Amino acid sequence: MKQIPPKISAHYQDHLNHKAIPEREFLNYKKWLRYYLDFCFKYNHNHLNKTNIDLFIEKLKEKGQKDQQQKQAFHAVSLYYELGLIDDGKDGLLENKDEELSIKKENNLKGSGADWVPAYDQLKAEISLRHYSPKTLRSYSGWIRRFQDYTRSKDTRLLTSVDVKDYLTFLAVKSKVSASSQNQAFHALLFFYRHVLKKDFGDQKEVPRAKRKPHIPVVLSREEVDRIIEKLRYPYSLVVKLLYGCGLRLFECLNLRVGSFNFDTGILTVHDGKGQKDRTVPLPEKILPEIKLHLESVMDLHEEDLKAGYDGVFLPAALEEKYKNAAREWVWQWFFPAKTLTLVPETRELRRSHLHESHVQKAIRSAVKRSKIAKRATAHTFRHSFASHLLQANFDIRTIQELMGHSDVRTTMIYTHTIRSRTKKEAISPLDF
Asked: Which end of the chain is more exposed for a tag (fewer CB within 10 A), N or C?
């Protein structure tokens, strides 16, 4: 492993002192910097290019480093960037060739160490233009970073369909990733080539692909659903009641706004669901009083926010531009607001976000464990249970498809495997003869 050049080590330690880093942590910070420089040297990355820190953290995740260690490594490398080094090979801090830790030649179409920042910026712009979700951006960016790592930051102008073929083959043969991960990588790279690089992607028919195994979703009984809800505290109990009672995805539930509820018709409108589609589902009559009581507490919070002079809830950029005061209006408030306001660093605005997904997921995991249910139940399991129970109650498959928001009825048909056949010749075990 490469060592930190003495000159850089001295400057870096001075900077740690200046930033009031505890002296007992110096060794750890220098360790992370050493790992980072060695990573850049190994994969032909420019150690002064700030975008490479994301690749480095991705590598730490692959190595199983804990979140706390990843955060410290990120901070250690960020402080290194603050030194403002110039790798000129002459009068800079890296003046001795023996002390150089990464490829000294800046990329001039020689195949490695290129700057991919413009490509990532363009990727973000193209995804925003199509109004794709932030999850899609994170997923695509993650696969593009792995692809960049695999190609050793090859100049994007030199990338061809062969690079894609090699990488997808690597995922299937060497990494042996699942079929769903291969599919994600394929679509991320397809989008990247078509809309960012404007290059031919190739048919990629010869790339080996893992076969997607038939997946039968986990379904809870009605009794199990009730047992889990009993173990949940408010407002998580109400979240789960809507997940199960309306067949919502978790992000759809947490993105509900006050204006989504129509009590006169008993209808809940789900805006911008998966695929940016809207749909309506019936509101469960059993929980209407609880929903109305919850809205009263949301109203009280909203009035407190208005008195405090907050800047409103987060809205899609286009909507806020069109309706200047919408962020502060009652109808646009989150149905499940976050407990605290969020400070937007760029504008110094105080905004209200919705309840975070991770908080709900953690609460559900805990409730399932305490319920002693021997099933791997998650937030999405309640949506599966919604569909399965409707099918069990003889609802038409097309109706269930519409309520679920599925584009293809074949997606809905998977739930036929979660219930027992109602035919006369019902399959039974020989043990029951």
From this structure: C
Q: Which among 59, 383, 384, 389 is annotated as catalytic?
A: 383
Q: pLDDT band for position 424 (50/70/90)?
A: very low
Q: Determine the Cα–Cα distance for residues 151 and 143; give it in Å rounded to an integer.
A: 12
Query: Does 97 score more than 60 pLDDT?
Result: no
CA 43/CA 22 separation, integer angstroms: 31
DSSP letter, residue 313: B
Is 406 labeled as catalytic in the residue annotation?
yes
Assigned token pair, 239: 């979240």
Cis bond leading into 217, ω under 30°?
A: no
Range name among 194-208, 252-266, 291-305, 338-352 with the lowest pLDDT average: 194-208
Helical segments of 116-261, H only = 117-129, 134-150, 161-169, 179-191, 222-230, 236-246, 250-254
Band (1; pLDDT cuts 50, 70, 90)? low
User: H helices of 221-310, where?
Assistant: 222-230, 236-246, 250-254, 288-308
Catalytic residue among 249, 302, 352, 384: 249
Dihedral pair phi/psi, residue 250, rounded to 5°: -60, -45
Residues 9, 30 contacting (CB under 8 angstroms): yes
Q: How many CA atoms lie within 13 A of 288 on its CB side?
A: 13
159 touches 199 (CB < 8 A): yes
> In sequence order, what DSSP letters do the residues of 139-165 get, joined into one string?
HHHHHHHHHHHHTTS--GGG--HHHHH
Return the higher-pLDDT residue of 42 and 429.
Answer: 42
Told to judge if 383 belongs to the known catalytic residues of this protein, a careful annotator would answer yes
129-134 long-range contacts (CB < 8 A, ≥24 apart) are 131/276, 131/316, 132/276, 133/251
Whether 249 is catalytic is yes
Cα–Cα distances in Å, from 399 out to 243, 395, 402, 413? 18, 7, 5, 12
pLDDT at 431: 57
